[in-house]
Amino acid sequence: AYERRFPTCPLIPMFVASDTVSEYKSEDEAIHVIERRCKLDIDAPRLLKKIAGVDYVYFVQKNSLNRRERTLHIEAYNETFSNRVIINEHCSYTVHPDNEDWTCFEQSASLDIKSFFGFESTVEKIAMKQYTSNIKKGKEIIEYYLKQLEEEGITFVPRWTPPVTCKSESSTSHTRRPVSPAINIPESATKEGLNNKEILNTSSSPSEPTAGTPDDKLDADYIKRYLGDLTPMQESCLIRLRQWLQETHKGKIPKDEHILRFLRARDFNIDKAREILCQSLTWRKQHQVDYILDTWNPPQVLQDYYAGGWHHHDKDGRPLYVLRLGQMDTKGLVRALGEEALLRYVLSINEEGLRRCEENTKVFGRPISSWTCLVDLEGLNMRHLWRPGVKALLRIIEVVEANYPETLGRLLILRAPRVFPVLWTLVSPFIDDNTRKKFLIYAGNDYQGPGGLLDYIDKEIIPDFLGGECMCEVPEGGLVPKSLYRTAEELENEDIKLWTETIYQSASVFKGAPHEVLIQIVDASSVITWDFDVCKGDIVFNIFHSKRAPQPPKKDSLGAHSITSPGGNNVQLIDKVWQLGRDYSMVESPLICKEGESVQGSHVTRWPGFYILQWKFHNMPACATTNLPRVDDVLASLQVSSHKCKVMYYTEVIGSEDFRGSMTSLESSHSGFSQLSAATTSSSQSHSSSMISR
């Protein structure tokens, strides 16, 4: 089916023609290698083609078919502009080691633009656009030709067998190429609606134990016991996303159940699920959410007046949370505690919910990954529509939606009064469509009739305030005494205290606007330590020393870069008139850090003075062979979004005598991403991406 796309393919308009350069077949016909020169009509601006002096670009593609090992390897590289741009691509089709009905597909590519007439940034965008487009069409094209073969009556190709006249070769001498579990080719794949963007560089040897509860993640009993019903497509998505996390976060990954929540939240679109999951892992680390149940005690005001709590489980075994919203003084709680304390309390409730889901999975012997929430609106009135209270509620919903997807199995809203539609109009736009489908709303006493509470909760555990026989220990709420109210200043200070307990800070890095941190050293031989995560983009990390203090920090002056939130500050310390070697010196070699990497390290200072830690945007090598103006530099300020990086960092200065004792632990340090990975991390697979410098 793959060979049918040559010499040209109508499904790939940019693929104009191809010529065979060389071809080789082994005597036993097991090996077939063919090399072609392909002509492509790249969708690029006319001006760029005119400057480059070409209308078409040429690639060399080498296809190696091994019928003995049942593999097809495809390698391609550019012939046009090979001295300026280097493009390499590798694809492979192999048979799944554990299921011969599955075809594994792997794809990886690299792009290195050395120089291109000052249009490096433009060429990079064009290349990425073309490559992404090809990935999207890859599965569609192979299925097109498979269907074409079926229409011609070709539904089966006999396996290769050694010719009778030849001496049989031991097939066991050939080592099976490591492959990653991948998607199934048959047409059932389309019915599952799997997004076809391929994840780059996701190969992993099946011989190595994969981090998780069982060693074999394809084990049907494990899936049924802990994950629930999964189609082959969904199972493949889970495996591939987990492998990507293992490679990126060096073994520190969440449990399969948690990864699956993010996949379900994005309909098993791997790219989208990966994006929100990585953002959530960074958020958990920044605010130390993993430790909230162990380290944070809710204020007494919350314990007395927050009318919510856990109450047994529903008929499906889901933990049941009861919230008497109508009895709760939301205005009083916000005035007494502020938004941050309320948000943190809701986070602790969600963390407790995750823990209870794990416990119920063990108790009931089936996967339970979500909980049921019962909200009683008896007493809800216009007082609950107080604007700051609604604002706090919307923020809480936003944070929970982003970091706890697919944890709400069902929401039962009881005794909804006339004012409820007003509140629902304000809140519903912030709730995900999939979540909204889980809402069941009952007005008055409708919950007592058919289709009501008894359909979802056993009669024995219906709370007493709803006419049941079970005593519910949820606080009754009530008005918060005004004597407990805080002033705006007090609340602001309290908010800062609550949310700066994290030792990490966030910073934005732009092209031409690095982020810099000043550290003053009084005693020589002190040790500067750092721990940072590259959350977005690629950066270069530098350490400088100066005998004189730089000017007071100034915010990035580019209007488009103005950052006001604490999660994205940008500070520049090194004055533009300073010269390297005269006003300041470099004390460590620059370190290029890729997106997703976690870096820990240290530097023993040789002199007192001022040390500057710098995170700088990683530029492609500048064009040294042309005097043409660099277009991407000129347009940098207009294309800020494509030249933005983000880091999360922590620095500390330690006396050398104190540091030696912790040297071993620093050298073996890992990313420190979410503690959700605690039960699924295999120590044999924990690899550090850190750099230790002295």
From TrEMBL:
Function, in words: May play a role in innate immunity by inhibiting the antiviral RIG-I signaling pathway. In this pathway, functions as a negative regulator of RIGI, the cytoplasmic sensor of viral nucleic acids. Prevents the interaction of RIGI with MAVS/IPS1, an important step in signal propagation. May also regulate the SLC18A3 and SLC5A7 cholinergic transporters.
Biased composition (Polar residues): 198-210
Limits of the PRELI/MSF1 domain: 1-154
UniProt-annotated stretches for the region Disordered: 167-216
Presence of the UniProt keyword Cytoplasm in the record: yes
GO cellular component annotations of the record: cytosol; Golgi apparatus
Domain (CRAL-TRIO): residue spans on this chain: 298-474
Protein name: SEC14-like protein 1
Molecular-function GO terms, alphabetical: RIG-I binding
Domain GOLD, chain residue ranges per copy: 500-653
Entry keywords, A to Z: Cytoplasm, Golgi apparatus, Immunity, Innate immunity, Phosphoprotein, Signal transduction inhibitor
Chief site of localization: cytoplasm
Pfam name, any one: CRAL_TRIO
Gene: Sec14l1_0
Subunit field text: Interacts with RIGI (via tandem CARD domain); the interaction is direct. Interacts (via GOLD domain) with SLC18A3; the interaction is direct. Interacts with SLC5A7 (via GOLD domain); the interaction is direct.
Keyword hit for Cytoplasm: yes
